[in-house]
């Protein structure tokens, strides 16, 4: 189905988050043909799930919209969603790539009228909200999705329910015959910008994530605060839907820990401070405590740290929390640890606990894997001997969007050089 | 603990050189997980992190006289949880051992118990649940011995009932000689021995 003409002058970008989009745009605006491959049904990556960006606290959609417009205007970029790279062979200047497209069961005629979702009765866990709510099995991934097009979940494509959706569609947009397809590409260079996954917090057993309802992760906090999230933007306790009055953040939950991620995930200190502003916006009287080993707000981001310190109901306590236990009746959580400034033992109850979990880089998971270098933690390492495939953004180091954008611009330049060398 | 401190590296150096696993504390990032998860933290004068911090501060007397280094029950929680993979428990034991070698007996009963335990393992290859407490109880004198025996009588009867303790003396294990060779070697390496 996909007719894509590429040559060894073209560039493949894998991952359509901020890093991938930036690399694709920069290379295309410098005159190169670019193919962008994204696994999700929409572009934008993890930032589409954030409520606001630190340090300016603006909604991520502004920046994304500008980039999507740049993409629409640029005929040199082709992008594919629900697509994954399954094979890479060859070398710098001459790669053969195989791309697999998963069926969406909805074609480009979709107007997002929503009729299919109206008649659909089956529901699935909403991946966009980390399973905190359900959506219909015929759905728009989120309200700002780009491309703006519905998806039919494979669980209903072959069923009566699927047929009902097709019948409901007045635009002939539902296509139940769609199959998984693959196509091949020739490219001269590859930018790998597959981003990150949140670390699985349930592995830090003594924090009880997955067992205690009111222990959530920082990415869930972003969804709870977002107007298009599971609670319509109101931050509420998962156990009983009550407004939180006393919230704790546990920093380095699974990061800087040799039993988990040995490295610092770079942004979670800032994310928790940002979350304290989300709470303050909704609850002027809510107490917030951030438990930390040390606060890492680097260079210009230190201003944000200074700013939130002005909040009198926000306290910072130097302690890595050592244990959480739940009061089964109230759902409140008892945190234990040692205040390492005073030496005092901490035993304090909170009604909501947010784990500041870190980022795990998405390495190339293709067999046989192309020859690239990683550091000891699985992040792409720049190796001047190995040219042709370049990491960009959070696959290179856990960092914020501004740094990803800079890094991706650099990766685009490296990719262009790979082509120029031929 | 006070905020402005003068670091005196001399005791830290002494620990790195002489204490079993002592060098491990170089990796400590002062996070407090060990101190917050040790089940004995409410009985300790200084939980593990504070001990490590005091070593860095050069507080030799406080560290070697600390009750906590003798209190550790080897539950391993600290070692399992330490984000820097520091064998906190080994350092605690190393320090206790080192303190005893320096003639510091902050918890004489713990030291006695350790010595009797070692001796008995050396003699029998196992622990005699009657003999060990008897020796420990009576080490403090006859009257003290009777008092302690009465205090633990209840527990002793329960152990009997559940066949965790026999009335007859325990016999030596088979192959006691090989075990003794291992214990001798351990003692030579400074790990354990009748001094502890
Ligand atoms: C709780 C939290 C809050 C944050 N808040 C902020 C903030 O306020 N401000 C800020 O600047 N930064 C923030 N960040 C960091 C920000 O999320 C990252 O900097 C950003 O997401 C990095 O973009 P990326 O494109 O490198 O990766 P991603 O956003 O992860 O994008 C990668 C894309 O690649 C796709 N992909 C993955 N694997 C494949 C594959 N095999 N094939 C094809 N596609 C694939 C993914 O679906 C995704 O769309 C926050 C992070 C966290 C954890
Ligand atoms: S698939 Fe059809 S019914 Fe569903 S939203 Fe699109 S146009 Fe509407
Ligand atoms: S950024 Fe902060 S919370 Fe995240 S790993 Fe680093 S120190 Fe820990
Ligand atoms: S848990 Fe490990 S790193 Fe943390 S204070 Fe204890 S010894 Fe140091
Ligand atoms: S091993 Fe010793 S120091 Fe470590 S947690 Fe257990 S009792 Fe405490």
Walk me through what this model shows.
- The complex is a heterodimer of chains A (about 425) and B (about 200).
- Chain A contains nine helices and 22 strands.
- Chain A is of the alpha/beta class and about 425 residues long.
- In chain A, helix 1 (about 20-30) packs across helix 9 and helix 6 (about 220-225) packs parallel to helix 7 (about 270-280).
- Chain A is globular.
- The two termini of chain A are about 30 Å apart.
- The mean pLDDT of chain A is about 95.
- Chain B has twelve helices and no strands.
- Chain B is globular and about 60 Å long.
- The interface between A and B is medium-sized, with 24 and 22 residues.
- One iron/sulfur cluster binds near residues 38, 72, 74, 77 and 92 of chain B.
Helical content of chain A (DSSP H or I, runs of 4+): 10-25%
Strand order of the largest sheet of chain A: 3-2-1-11-22
What is the strand tally of chain B? Answer: 0
* Domain count of chain B: 2
CATH fold field value of the largest domain in chain A = FAD/NAD(P)-binding domain
Structural class of chain A: alpha/beta
Give the N-terminus to C-terminus distance of chain B in angstroms: 30 Å
Q: Which architecture of the largest domain in chain B would the CATH scheme give at its second level?
A: Orthogonal Bundle
Report the total helices of chain B.
Answer: 12
The first-level CATH class name of the largest domain in chain B: Mainly Alpha
Q: Could you list the spans of chain A in which at least 5 consecutive residues all have pLDDT below 50?
A: none
Q: Kindly state the mean pLDDT of chain A as a whole number?
A: 96
Mean pLDDT of chain B: 88
CATH domain class name of the largest domain in chain A: Alpha Beta
CATH architecture of the largest domain in chain A, please?
Answer: 3-Layer(bba) Sandwich
Question: Quick one: how many beta strands of chain A?
Answer: 22
Structural class of chain B: mainly alpha
Give the domain tally of chain A.
3
CA-CA gap between termini of chain A: 31 Å
């Amino acid at each position: 189905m996909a007719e894509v003409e590429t040559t060894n002058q073209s560039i493949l970008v894998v991952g359509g988050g901020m890093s991938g989009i930036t690399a694709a745009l920069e290379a295309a605006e410098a005159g190169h043909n670019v193919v962008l491959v994204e696994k999700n049904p929409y572009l934008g990556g993890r930032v589409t799930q954030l409520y606001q960006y630190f340090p300016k606290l603006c909604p991520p959609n502004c920046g994304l919209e500008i980039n999507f417009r740049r993409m629409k205007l640029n005929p040199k970029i082709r992008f594919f969603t629900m697509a994954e790279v399954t094979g890479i062979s060859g070398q710098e200047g001459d790669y053969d790539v195989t791309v697999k497209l998963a069926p969406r069961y909805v074609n480009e005629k979709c107007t997002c009228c929503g009729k299919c979702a109206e008649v659909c009765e089956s529901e699935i866990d909403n991946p966009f909200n980390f399973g905190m709510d359900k959506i219909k099995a015929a759905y728009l991934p989120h309200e700002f999705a780009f491309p703006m097009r519905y998806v039919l979940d494979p669980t209903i494509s072959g069923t009566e329910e699927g047929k009902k959706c097709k019948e409901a569609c007045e635009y002939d947009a539902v296509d139940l015959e769609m199959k998984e397809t693959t196509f091949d590409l020739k490219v001269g260079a590859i930018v790998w910008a597959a981003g990150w996954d949140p670390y699985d917090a349930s592995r830090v057993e003594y924090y009880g994530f997955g067992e205690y309802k009111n222990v959530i992760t920082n990415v869930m906090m972003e969804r709870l605060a977002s107007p298009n999230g599971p609670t319509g933007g109101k931050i509420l306790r998962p156990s009983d839907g009550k407004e939180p009055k006393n919230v704790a953040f546990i920093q380095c939950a699974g990061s800087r820990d040799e039993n988990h991620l040995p490295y610092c995930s770079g942004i979670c200190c800032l994310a928790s401070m940002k979350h304290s502003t989300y709470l303050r916006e909704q609850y002027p009287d809510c107490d917030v405590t951030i438990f930390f080993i040390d606060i890492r707000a680097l260079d210009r981001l230190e201003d944000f740290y200074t700013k939130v310190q002005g909040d009198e109901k926000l306290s910072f306590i130097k302690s890595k929390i050592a244990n959480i236990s739940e009061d089964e009746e109230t759902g409140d959580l008892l945190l234990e640890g040692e205040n390492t400034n005073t030496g005092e033992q901490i035993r304090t109850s909170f009604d909501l606990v947010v784990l500041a979990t870190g980022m795990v880089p998405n390495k190339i998971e293709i067999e046989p894997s192309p020859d690239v270098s990683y550091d000891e933690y699985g992040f792409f390492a720049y190796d001047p001997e190995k040219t042709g495939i370049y990491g960009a953004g959070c696959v290179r180091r856990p960092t914020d969007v501004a740094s990803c954008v800079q890094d991706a611009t650099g990766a685009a330049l490296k990719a262009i050089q790979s082509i120029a060398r031929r | 603990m006070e905020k402005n401190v003068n670091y005196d590296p001399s005791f830290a150096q002494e620990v790195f050189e002489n204490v079993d696993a002592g060098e491990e504390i170089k990796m400590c990032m002062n996070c407090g997980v060990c101190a917050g998860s040790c089940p004995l933290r409410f009985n300790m004068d200084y939980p593990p992190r504070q001990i490590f911090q005091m070593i860095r501060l050069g507080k030799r007397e406080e560290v070697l006289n600390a009750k906590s280094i003798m209190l550790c029950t080897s539950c391993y929680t600290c070692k399992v949880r330490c984000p820097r993979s520091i064998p906190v428990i080994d350092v605690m034991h190393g320090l206790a051992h080192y303190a005893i070698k320096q003639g510091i007996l902050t918890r004489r009963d713990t030291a006695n118990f350790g010595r009797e335990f070692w001796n008995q393992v050396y003699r029998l290859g196992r622990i005699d649940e009657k003999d060990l407490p008897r020796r420990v109880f009576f080490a403090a004198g006859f009257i003290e011995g009777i008092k302690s025996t009465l205090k633990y009588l209840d527990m002793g009867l329960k152990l009997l009932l559940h066949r965790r303790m026999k009335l007859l003396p325990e016999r030596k294990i088979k192959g006691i000689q090989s075990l003794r060779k291992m214990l001798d070697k351990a003692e030579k390496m400074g790990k354990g021995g009748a001094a502890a």
